[in-house]
Specification:
The complex is a heterodimer of chains A (383) and B (486). With 383 residues, chain A is α/β, with parallel strands linked by helices. Chain A contains 14 helices and eight strands. Chain B contains eleven helices and 21 strands. In chain B, a hairpin with a 4-residue loop joins strand 4 and strand 5. In chain B, the strands form six sheets. In chain B, strands 11, 14, 17, 18, 19, 20 and 21 form a seven-stranded mixed sheet that branches. In chain B, strands 1-8-6-3 form a four-stranded antiparallel sheet, with no helix packed on it. Classes of the chains: A alpha/beta (383), B alpha+beta (486).
């Protein structure tokens, strides 16, 4: 038996691991022979749009955390630090592509056009996800770790059977984008999804935001090799991208999604990033990780580097940044007011979406419950 | 009125209470939405709460250091002439702690409607509603909340006859609820035991049950009825004839101090250590004049320019050198596995007195550090601890500890081992004392070292050897040259 002794660490070393990066943490654009061609159509306008997306995603997140701390939400999973991975990959999508998110993809939801206020209902406990997945081709948040990779693969196999790949029609050919984290790679579901996608050559892109922590478990407890290398064992390509570099994430996602649309099968993108906040608002990350690690990642901030780049290249002035800031504040206000005015659902709504046509026994139960609830004085007023 | 109150939210999925650690605002301060107003500490973490209101702080309703149930109003903010942002509900908490008079626009759901039912608000504590702590998600409740919504008077609505059965069963279900709704858990006891309690004048709900399934037994009632000789309060009661209620300086004779987090942890750790590890303490008095001189000389050196080199750092280094010669003092007792774990690395704990209490952060891989790096690490550790910023990770995984009691001017003590470790060394004050040196009595720098060790792991011979090794290094640092690497 031989073991590849060169590869024994999860993070990989500079020597044996290539990280696609187009924008350094200092905001300097580094040329790349191949990936430059994938984003050579990006204009200064679009850079400004990306910056706006990043800022909005961050503001959605910080407002939601504040709302949770004010008792308005039961829970929130913060995306802080992962804005570039989400925005870069989501902006590579076409309208007909379909997205399967985890519960942390607020930036992707934003880019897909979902009203961020709609994300809050789930975390406030007043609905189970209120946006229509068909409207923006953005599936509901999946809480079960890794389960959505199987949904995505199945959906991609459906796309395949619809013949919506490899036709050469840019309006028709579709890809599926499945998000998950480093912790999910230890789940059976994800490995099964890899197998199914590989064997069926399904048009799915597995986008792993490796934020280094599966709640309190560090990456080295999940893997002995860099995660992107796992793809090779399943028979499709994998690569690692600087997950805090929005341009690099855009470039590699564009390429992988196009591969899928062209019928060339799945691929794995490992976006190497960092979860700057706790796992959720219920978690205290200082119990298991060091501030020094956080500090080192703070220097790689995904939003600041775009700002530095734009300033350096004179793509934006202070008025632009102030304008985005003001827009972000408006969005925050929208989130606050919408969140606080969300009505509690009526208890009988649990019957609403079980069957298309409610069977008589269930209808009887529904009516019985309604009468029971009616027997309380106060419930009537609440509705 | 435009004064809005902010109720303590459940910030961690199923928490029932939190301690107000510190206020970041005071009455009269202007606050904006999302300004940080208070730091709280829950069973899960310390978090800062942002203000849901813009306005001027009217009053702080809970003092620092107090632990209050979720739902308790903690701050009142005067939101001025704007339409008052009405009270913030605490979803997921539903403890019914609605404050008065502002249920106008708030999406408070059931809470707002129940004022009449439970207007006690804040004093509906979660005591019977405790959840067991879990890492993620709501912990399981250890008992049911026992609160139901008010039922309409029976005659109010007449259901269609064919629905009466269902209606009745529904009513039956809700009618049972009030039985446990008086906020008190139902006591399990057999009727004769209840009668005994009644006869003896004992409130059976106050009796600690020891029977199967939490039932109160006859013995429990008898034990509760037996005259209690010495409760803590009675033990300290002043002798008859002393009528004053005051102690010195006109202050109350006794004061009860709530046991806060660090103090509580210290207490638990100390009790655990003292009663599981059989402690032995040995002492040695040692002439450290040469070490003191060495420290003075090193301080002159360029590489020590920015370092506060203290005798403590020399002691730390001496321990690191001495440990490999007696590795048992650096071992760990694994009760579950029935094994002794020999640890071939040193995570050196330094006990630090902080405003919040005693903490023992440790220097990781101390055996690999030079004297200079050790000195830096000790200083960093101490200043971080004093600021109360020691991350929990720094307090875990220690292998052996030092307690520098000398800084308090005392000669020595019998330290209690940090739980999970095998030994702790107390470093006493260094004093100029008459000492026999080269046949003459000279003033020398003398200190006392005390080593407490866990006798399960460390025998007297080993403990003595380690202590004398450390002492000999401090007595003459040159001794280190004579030692092998292991």
């Amino acid at each position: 038996m031989t073991v590849d002794t060169a590869v024994t660490s999860a993070s990989g070393t500079a020597a044996d691991t290539e990280l696609v990066q187009l924008l350094t943490p200092e905001g300097e654009r580094v040329p790349h022979e191949h990936y430059d061609t994938l984003i050579d159509d990006i204009t200064a306008d679009e850079i400004r749009d990306l910056y706006r997306d990043l800022t909005m995603s961050r503001r959605i997140d910080s407002e939601a955390i504040a709302l949770q701390r004010q008792g308005e939400l039961g829970l929130w999973a913060s995306l802080l630090g992962q804005e570039a991975a989400q925005v870069g990959s989501a902006r590579a999508l076409r309208p007909q592509d379909h997205v399967f998110p985890t519960y942390r993809e607020h930036g992707v939801a934003w880019c897909r056009g979902v009203d961020p206020a709609q994300l809050l209902g789930l975390f406030r406990g007043v609905d189970q996800g209120s946006w229509d997945p068909k409207e923006n081709n953005f599936h509901l948040y999946t809480i079960v770790i890794g389960a959505q990779t199987l949904h995505a693969t199945g959906y991609a196999m459906g796309v395949q059977r619809d013949g919506a790949i490899g036709t050469g029609d840019p309006e028709r050919d579709a890809a599926v984008l499945a998000y998950f984290g480093d912790g999910a790679t230890s789940q059976g579901d994800v490995n099964e999804a890899f197998i199914w996608a590989g064997v069926n050559n399904a048009p799915v892109v597995f986008f792993c935001q490796n934020n280094q922590w599966a709640i309190s478990e560090p990456l080295e407890r999940q893997t002995r090799v860099p995660l992107y290398r796992r793809a090779h064992g399943f028979g499709f390509p994998g690569l690692r991208v600087d997950g805090n570099d929005v341009l690099a994430c855009l470039a590699v996602s564009r390429e992988a999604l196009q591969r899928a649309r062209d019928g060339e099968g799945p691929s794995l993108i490992e976006a190497f990033t960092y979860r700057m906040g706790a796992h959720t608002t219920s978690d205290d990350a200082s119990r298991y990780r060091l501030d020094s690690e956080l500090e080192s990642w703070r220097l790689k901030d995904p939003v600041e580097r775009v700002k530095a780049y734009m300033t350096r290249e004179k793509m934006a002035d202070q008025a632009f940044f102030d304008g985005v800031e003001a827009e972000a504040e408006q969005l925050a206000e929208h989130l606050r007011t919408t969140c606080r005015s969300m009505p509690d659902p009526h208890p009988t709504t649990i019957f609403d979406h079980v069957y298309v046509d409610t069977p008589p026994t269930l209808r009887a139960q529904q009516e019985e419950m309604a009468r029971y609830l009616d027997s309380f004085v106060d419930e009537k007023e609440a509705q | 009125m435009s004064v809005s109150q902010f109720n303590l939210p459940d910030v961690g999925e199923g928490l029932t209470e939190a301690e107000i650690v510190s206020w970041k605002v005071k009455p009269g301060d202007a606050v904006k939405v999302n300004d940080i107003i208070v730091e709280i500490e829950t069973a899960k973490s310390a978090v800062e709460l942002p203000s849901p209101y813009a306005g001027v702080v009217d009053s702080l309703l809970v003092e620092e250091g107090q632990t209050v149930p979720v739902g308790t109003p903690i701050i009142a903010v005067n939101t001025g002439t704007e339409t008052p942002v009405s009270d913030v509900a605490t979803p997921g908490a539903d403890l019914g702690a609605e404050s008065s008079g502002s249920d106008a626009a708030a999406p408070t759901g059931t809470g707002a409607d129940e004022k009449g039912a439970t207007d006690t608000g804040a004093d509906t504590p979660a005591a019977e509603d405790e959840r067991q702590p879990v890492l993620v998600g709501y912990g399981p409740r250890s008992s049911s909340p026992g609160r139901r919504q008010r039922k309409r008077p029976a005659a109010a609505s007449e259901p269609p006859p064919d629905q009466q059965r269902a209606q009745q069963s529904a009513h039956a279900g809700s009618a049972q609820a009030p039985a446990s709704g008086d906020g008190r858990a139902r006591v399990l006891a057999k009727p004769p035991v209840r009668k005994l309690a009644k006869d003896l004048g004992i409130d059976i709900s106050t009796v600690t049950p020891t029977g199967p399934n939490g039932t109160v037994t006859r013995e429990d009632v008898q034990a509760a009825a037996a005259p209690v000789a010495d409760t803590a309060d009675e033990a300290v009661r002043e002798p008859a004839g002393v009528s004053s209620e005051l102690g010195w300086n006109g202050q109350p004779r006794t004061e009860r101090i709530p046991v806060r987090s660090v103090r509580r942890k210290t207490a638990q750790a100390m009790v655990e250590s003292a009663f599981t590890a059989p402690h032995v303490t040995e002492f040695i008095t040692v002439d450290v004049s040469r070490s003191v001189k060495l420290a003075e000389r090193l301080r002159e050196k360029r590489e020590f320019r920015d370092v506060k080199l203290t005798p403590l750092a020399l002691l730390a280094r001496a321990m690191c050198l001495a440990i490999p010669r007696t590795p048992e003092v650096n071992a760990r007792w694994d009760e579950d596995a029935g094994e002794i774990v020999m640890q071939r690395y040193v995570n050196l704990g330094i006990a630090a007195a902080t405003p919040r209490g005693l903490v023992v952060p440790n220097i990781k891989e101390a055996h690999q550090l030079s004297l200079r790096d050790l000195a830096v690490a000790i200083n960093d550790l101490a200043s971080t601890a004093r600021e109360g910023k020691t991350p929990p990770a720094d307090m875990q995984g220690g292998t052996i500890s030092i307690t520098n009691v000398g800084v308090f001017g005392v000669d020595t003590g019998t330290p209690i081992i940090n739980p999970g470790e095998a030994a702790i060394l107390a470093f006493g004050a260094i004093r100029e004392q008459p000492w026999v040196h080269k046949g003459k009595i000279k003033p020398r720098s003398i200190t006392t070292l005390a080593l407490s060790f866990d006798h399960r792991l460390v025998d007297g011979e080993q403990g003595s050897r380690f202590l004398s090794d450390v002492a000999s290094l401090l007595e003459d640092p040159a001794n280190a040259l004579a030692w092998s690497m292991t």
